[in-house]
Write a structure and sequence with these properties.
It is a single chain. The protein is α/β, with parallel strands linked by helices. It has 12 helices and 5 strands. The protein has a 5-stranded parallel sheet, with helices on both faces.
Length: about 230
């Protein structure tokens, strides 16, 4: 078989991965990591949800890796849009945000796995291969937590209370905790200031908070926007 033909066959045998993240350095790092593998290759990348949807239609990847925090529609919004068009596309959510809050939401939105960015170097290839084989990937800690919730039931801690928030409300709550103003949140999420204020009012009602000051204090104390050591 000619060399070019062998190369084409080898390329077709590789599973293709598409990466969505708003940090170019992370996209490049993932591409370097994945492209070193003999059976995997990155077929494309995007920094926001709308560009990702257009590119995925062209690239038809075998698996998608997506961050939660994107400019405009976030990773969970992207996942929901994907499921309407590509119900069987495997999706791994990769995020800096605490898996104890976001992993279950990602699974409910039909993600195939969730991995925190600080685990990525060691575990992302394990997660990718496990998902491509048809399994779900979660850290041992998160899998045990979900099993504990299933067997024993939930608790009344902050994480449980936050489960009452919608995905968009949780995103607004996280950005408040990062110290963002209403205007900054509106710009990041591509929403009107009035819409953000409406989300803030809903959050206060659901968490039984009496004022904007209490909302800010609880958002900061929840630390859902911080990296987990």
């Amino acid at each position: 078989m000619p060399q070019n033909a062998r190369s084409q066959v080898a390329m077709r045998a590789k599973k293709t991965v598409f990466v969505v993240d708003d940090h170019p350095v992370l996209r490049q790092g993932l591409a370097l990591l994945i492209n070193r593998e003999p059976d995997l290759t990155v077929c494309g990348e995007a920094e926001e949800a709308q560009a990702a949807m257009r590119a995925i239609a062209l690239k038809q990847p075998d698996l998608l890796i997506a961050d939660i925090s994107l400019n405009g529609p976030d990773g969970l919004d992207l996942l929901k849009d994907l499921r309407a068009l590509y119900p069987d596309l495997p999706v791994l959510i990769l995020s800096m945000h605490d898996e104890s809050i976001y992993a279950e939401r990602a699974l409910r939105a039909r993600a195939n796995g969730y991995i925190m960015k600080q685990e990525a170097t060691d575990r992302v290839l394990v997660a990718v291969r496990r998902i491509l084989s048809g399994d779900i990937y979660l850290s041992d800690r998160m899998a045990n937590k979900l099993l504990h919730q299933y067997i024993i039931g939930g608790s009344a801690d902050m994480n449980s209370r936050l489960s009452a928030l919608s995905d968009r409300e949780l995103e607004v709550f996280r950005l408040i905790g990062e110290g963002r103003s209403t205007r900054q949140i509106a710009e990041k999420l591509h929403l009107s200031i009035k819409t953000v204020e409406t989300y803030q009012a809903h959050i206060k009602d659901k968490l039984s908070l009496r004022s904007g000051r209490e909302l800010v204090q609880h958002a900061i104390q929840s630390k859902i926007g911080e990296k987990i050591a």
